[in-house]
Amino acid sequence: MLKKAKILIVDDDPLNRLVLEKTLASDHEIFLVESGEKALTFVKSTEVDLIILDIVMPGIDGYDVLIQLKENPSTQTIPVIFISANTSHDDEAKGFELGAMDYIAKPFSTAIVRARVRNQLLIKQKNDLLEMLASIDGLTEIPNRRYLDENLSREWRRSRRAGTPLSVLLMDIDHFKRYNDCYGHRAGDDCLKRVAHALVTACERGSDFVARYGGEEFAAVLPNINQQEALVFANKLRSAVNALKIPHKASLNAEHITISIGIATTEFGQVYAEHTLLEEADLGLYEAKDTGRDRIVARVIAASGKSESLL
Ligand SMILES: Nc1nc2c(ncn2[C@@H]2O[C@H](COP(=O)(O)OP(=O)(O)OP(=O)(O)O)[C@@H](O)[C@H]2O)c(=O)[nH]1
């Protein structure tokens, strides 16, 4: 069974919109707009699963709408079915070349529209599942580095556009090599799973998330969180791991498993390279390790572009 999908129908002809809506509304959630401009505005604020797009419309035509959807990382994977009275092979080929998933000729059969929409939604559902599996770390079952990189990129662009703060945390289990050496690799794996679970459970806002960054390192992306708030959150994560009280008799800084955390925050919408936040968080983490472990070092990327540490 397919879940109710969100389908955007873009057509300047009111009758076509009405017929398409009637054809699909019993199985799906339908949104209707009458121009390419409105379609592009709509997808900025609402996530849709499929777009049925007319080609010949006043203003931006269907081809240009598709080109603009493909240029935007947040809309480029939405499947598009063209529906058009332009039925020459050249028109159809152009639609596919631009990235349309299917092409329906007008006048259309409602049964064929239903079947083709169903096919595209099934393909999308499978693609989404593959995408999700490719974003999950096999051992800890939390988001992996690929997921983190994609999300950080998106949040970084948003923060730059809106001038809002963005914080990144890099966390590393202290003396984990000693843990593996002392208790064995399998116990090390269990420890990673428990730490990952504790970190993920501590995230309460839907927009915050923790990923396994690699090995015994984790990372969190915190949109709209300034340095003070990031420090509070990092302390919560550090406490959550401490509270597990996983014995670590080979540790040189505690009797149980602890983590060190580096924080990087941009608060004033400064323009800097996308990777800077991770690099700064890494410097903070390095400092936290160097100054005793089981601690947090926060760095702010100041308006001058220089960064400062705050222990
Ligand atoms: N069990 C297990 N160990 C892992 C995994 N990934 C990385 N490690 C181990 O994590 C250890 C990391 O060691 P180091 O980078 O020297 O860091 P550390 O011992 O934690 O020391 P500090 O970071 O300085 O506190 C290595 O021994 C890796 O083999 C994993 O998936 N499972």
TrEMBL record:
Residues 164-301 form the GGDEF domain. Its EC number is 2.7.7.65. Keywords: Nucleotidyltransferase, Phosphoprotein, Transferase. SUPFAM superfamilies: CheY-like, Nucleotide cyclase. It catalyses: 2 GTP = 3',3'-c-di-GMP + 2 diphosphate. SMART domains: GGDEF (SM00267), REC (SM00448). It holds the Pfam family GGDEF. The modification 4-aspartylphosphate is found at residue 54. InterPro entries: CheY-like_superfamily, Diguanylate_Cyclase, GGDEF_dom, Nucleotide_cyclase, Rev_trsase/Diguanyl_cyclase, Sig_transdc_resp-reg_receiver. Residues 6-121 form the Response regulatory domain. One of its GO terms (molecular function) is diguanylate cyclase activity. This is diguanylate cyclase. It comes from Pseudoalteromonas haloplanktis.
